[in-house]
Amino acid sequence: MLDDETPTISNNRKKTLAQELADGQHGTRIPLSQKIAYGFGDFGNGFMFDLGQAYLTKFWIDAAGIGAGAVAGIFGFTKIFDAFMDPIAGSVIDNRKKIGKSGKFRPVMMVSAIILGIMTVVTFTMPNLSPTGKIVYAYAAYMIWGAVYSFTNDPYGSLASVMTRNVQDRSFIATSRQVGSVGAQFLTGIAFIPLMTMFGGNNEKHGFLIAATIFAILGVLMFLICYLGTRENVDVHRDKSAKAEGFKDYFKVVFTNGPLFVIILMTIFTISAMNTNNQMMVFFAQYNLGNIGLQPIVNGIMMGTSIVGVFMIPMLTKHFGKRKTAMVSFIIGAAANILNFILPTNVITFIILVTIGYTALAIPNGITWAFVSDVIDYGEWHTGMRKEAITYAAFNFSRKLAQSLAALVSAGILALTGYIANAHQTPKTLTGIKAAMTLYPGICLLIAAVVIGFLYKLSDDRYVQIAKDLDNGIWENGKIGDQDVKK
Q1: How far apart are CA 364 and CA 178, in angstroms?
Q2: At CA 247, angle to CA 241 and CA 253, rounded to 5?
Q3: 8 A C-beta contact, residue 71 and residue 205
Q4: What is the pTM of this model?
Q5: What are phi and psi of 475, to 5 degrees?
Q6: Exposure class string for 313-348: b at 16+ Cβ within 10 A, else e
């Protein structure tokens, strides 16, 4: 068995593991239909999640009349609140004892997705209230939305780890999920503003509400496809006598799982880069490029190309491995974004470079989902306890922190540079928008490249041996269930 103290594996054993990895032989293969159906979950997730990341800032500032500084505060606080909801959701889900034929994760995911659709519509609703009342309403609606999102996304992310342990199947599932995610970004990116304009007319608030309702309904339907099309196939060796977890177990999971901690650190930078890009695009198109109608065009090109890039993930990871593929992609994305900031603003060069940067980010973001499934298994192998939802909640905590950081950067820069809604912007404001759109993601991706390149130690061939141990009910120090893992 492998651990940090284990001597180096023999050359013959390395060849065997490498061959198994290349052939994708280890672990029972699952039907193609299940791998595709899983991606529909993030398709639906994106229809509801991406609306908030890309358009709530503009809705609250321009349509609802909330100040940019207050909006930065709303996003900053609620995302941190959301982050602390994740371990609660993870503990509740992991503590489920009565598991029916539908599995441990799928029923929770589906019920929560329906409620999430309702709350998505609520967040894009603003009653006629006083300025203070609007702020309070926005805080309350988005905090509830975030809590429901935790109970939707934690079981969805955990589901992948119990669908298969086959390396190539996991790579395909990660690709399927990222295609769903980027596909949702593509459709919301090109269709939301036109739908809002078409249904809103002179009433911008009404347009936002109708467009959000359409995407929320589509989101729930996509989750239904995921629920009906997937299965929890892995025979997990669970300790049925284990006591319920609390926050102590949550922190134990985080701080005893080195690879998980690295993925958490990397994600803070990658997700804040992506979300800042998405949030600032509508502002950049309207003010820096001078035409908000360019927003769906730029998004269509940028996200359409990134979908093509995501389809390359299985081929890239098979030939180069997950870590190297992610690191090189980060470096390419960082270079494109920084160059986009340095060059004078021009529609053509901006579209080319933002497309390269976003595609280079979409590829490692897709690989991240395979990383997460791997670190869930590593955590079980290392401690003898399998904690899918709590492990995923710890990972999701970093995503929420990153989303909060992105919101603070986006709305904060607008406030600090003197942004005025629906008005001519000063050169200082335009420079701030451009820096948030390009320079900030570039710096984040450089840091992410260093983190994944030098700190992540769970190689693909090491994972294959860990997966074999788990299939045989073995953890690092013996048989799962034989030890007292509840202390």
Answers
A1: 10
A2: 75
A3: no
A4: 0.70
A5: -110, -170
A6: bbebbbeebbbebbbbbbbbbbbbbbbbbeeebeee
Q: Which two tokens stand for residue 179?
A: 């295609």
Query: How far is Cα of residue 108 from the mean position of the Cα atoms in its chain?
Result: 19
Nearest partner of 402 among 278, 248, 256, 251, judged by Cα: 278
Residue 474 phi/psi, 5° resolution?
A: -115, 135
Residue 324 bridge partners (DSSP): none
Tokens representing residue 292 in the block: 């908000």
Q: Which amino acid type is present at position 318?
A: K
The arithmetic mean of pLDDT across residues 101-113, rounded, is 91
Side chain identity at residue 40, one-letter code: F
Cβ atoms < 10 Å from Cβ of 291:
11
Give the C-alpha separation, 119 to 456, whole Å: 37
pLDDT digits (tens, 9 = 90+) for 373-429: 889 888 888 887 777 777 877 788 888 788 878 888 988 899 899 988 778 899 999
- 420: how many CB neighbours lie within 10 A of its CB? 12
d(CA 57, CA 124): 11
Helix (H) and strand (E) counts in the chain: 17, 2
Residue 14 has pLDDT above 50, yes or no: no
Tokens for 137, please give them.
């309403």
Tens-digit pLDDT profile for residues 252-267: 666 788 899 999 999 9
Residue 478, H or E segment = strand 478-479
Contact between 117 and 218 (Cβ < 8 Å)? no
Torsion sign over Cα 275, 367, 251, 94: positive
- Tokens 């420079």 belong to 431
**DSSP of 57-114, one letter per residue?**
HHIIIIIS---HHHHHHHHHHHHHHHHHHHHHHHHHHHT-----TT-SSHHHHHHHHH
Residue whose structure tokens are 């992310």: 157
Q: Strand pairing partners for 479?
A: 474
Q: Which tokens belong to 412? A: 């904060």
Least Cα distance to 445 among 374, 362, 351, 355 occurs for 362
Asked if 382 contacts 143 with a C-beta cutoff of 8 angstroms, the reply is no
- Cα(315)–Cα(24) distance, rounded to whole angstroms? 12
Please give the structure tokens belonging to residue 188.
């919301």
pLDDT tens readout for residues 357-388: 999 999 998 888 789 888 988 888 888 777 77
Q: Which residues are CB-neighbours of 413 under 8 A, at least 6 positions away?
A: 432, 433, 435, 436
